[in-house]
Automatic annotation (TrEMBL):
<keyword id="KW-0436">Ligase</keyword>
<comment type="pathway">
    <text>Cofactor biosynthesis; coenzyme A biosynthesis; CoA from (R)-pantothenate: step 2/5.</text>
</comment>
<comment type="pathway">
    <text>Cofactor biosynthesis; coenzyme A biosynthesis; CoA from (R)-pantothenate: step 3/5.</text>
</comment>
<keyword id="KW-0479">Metal-binding</keyword>
<keyword id="KW-0511">Multifunctional enzyme</keyword>
<comment type="function">
    <text>Catalyzes two steps in the biosynthesis of coenzyme A. In the first step cysteine is conjugated to 4'-phosphopantothenate to form 4-phosphopantothenoylcysteine, in the latter compound is decarboxylated to form 4'-phosphopantotheine.</text>
</comment>
<feature type="binding site">
    <location>
        <begin position="125"/>
        <end position="128"/>
    </location>
    <ligand>
        <name>CTP</name>
    </ligand>
</feature>
<keyword id="KW-0460">Magnesium</keyword>
<feature type="binding site">
    <location>
        <position position="99"/>
    </location>
    <ligand>
        <name>CTP</name>
    </ligand>
</feature>
<keyword id="KW-0456">Lyase</keyword>
<comment type="similarity">
    <text>In the N-terminal section; belongs to the HFCD (homo-oligomeric flavin containing Cys decarboxylase) superfamily.</text>
</comment>
<feature type="domain" description="DNA/pantothenate metabolism flavoprotein C-terminal">
    <location>
        <begin position="6"/>
        <end position="214"/>
    </location>
</feature>
<dbReference type="GO" id="GO:0016874">
    <property type="term" value="F:ligase activity"/>
</dbReference>
<feature type="region of interest" description="Phosphopantothenate--cysteine ligase">
    <location>
        <begin position="11"/>
        <end position="221"/>
    </location>
</feature>
<feature type="binding site">
    <location>
        <position position="161"/>
    </location>
    <ligand>
        <name>CTP</name>
    </ligand>
</feature>
<feature type="binding site">
    <location>
        <begin position="93"/>
        <end position="95"/>
    </location>
    <ligand>
        <name>CTP</name>
    </ligand>
</feature>
<comment type="similarity">
    <text>In the C-terminal section; belongs to the PPC synthetase family.</text>
</comment>
Length: 221
């Protein structure tokens, strides 16, 4: 059974993809299933935390007991996170936030005529980096999906985004892809690292939440 080591913590988690509108009937998005973020929410709950889950559109069900906030776009996800972050002690950015959104949402459905159609994109806010920058930032954990030099890019992201911890997965390994029920993680923080071997996402989530709770205790000590 999970230890109740997150009692008194408020854990805010983002999960799933975001949808960026092109016109009233179209959007761009990605294949994130939300499974890892939802597993983290369930694990945090099992360890006694209060959990707020800010989720893009997914088909998985939220564990009962979490406060679920459904959003579509990255901007909506940022707003929902920022309105719930004040008393958060842990933030985990597990969502696959679209890096870019169409510069303008066309008001009417785009008609088919020319042979080519060009869309211009603008950069989305980086929710994780924005949370890490807050004056009273919670213990901030990021995810990194890498296809090569996992440790190098993960550690770079840890320092560049000013995170407390980063969990990296090798997405070139097809056993642990986006929609898989399993995952494997290399976890890095300023003073250490740990490899979490391939396992069901819930088992892995419990191990990651355990690591977070240990490092959180160190931070507060
Ligand atoms: O820089 P990169 O997108 O690889 O970073 C991934 C991490 O940053 C994930 O934790 C993801 O949830 C978070 N992220 C975010 N907002 C963005 C882009 C990424 O919170 N716009």
């Amino acid at each position: 059974p999970a230890s109740l080591s997150l009692t008194n913590e408020h854990v805010v988690i983002t999960a799933g993809p975001t949808r960026e509108a092109i016109d009233p009937v179209r959007y761009i998005s990605n294949h994130s299933s939300g499974k890892m973020g939802y597993a983290l929410a369930e694990a945090a709950l099992a360890m006694g935390a209060r959990v707020t889950l800010v989720s893009g559109p997914v088909t998985v069900c939220a564990p009962s007991g979490v406060t679920l906030i459904n959003v579509q776009s990255a901007e909506q996800m940022r707003d929902a996170v920022m309105s719930n972050i004040d008393d958060a002690t842990v933030f985990i950015g597990c969502a696959a936030v679209a890096d870019y959104r169409p510069e303008q949402v066309v008001e009417q459905k785009i008609k088919k005529h020319d042979e080519k159609l060009t869309l211009t994109f603008t950069k989305n806010p980086d929710i994780l980096a924005d949370v890490a920058k807050l004056e009273r930032a919670p213990f901030t954990v990021g995810f990194a999906a890498e296809t090569q030099d996992v440790s190098f890019y993960a550690k770079d992201k840890l320092t560049r985004k000013n995170l407390d911890m980063i969990a990296a997965n090798d997405v070139s390994d097809d056993r642990i892809g986006f929609n898989s029920d399993q995952n494997a993680l290399s976890v890095f923080w300023a003073k250490g690292e740990k490899t979490l071997e391939i396992a069901d996402k819930y088992q892995l989530a419990l191990q990651l939440m355990q690591l977070i709770s240990e490092q959180l205790t160190q931070k507060h000590a």
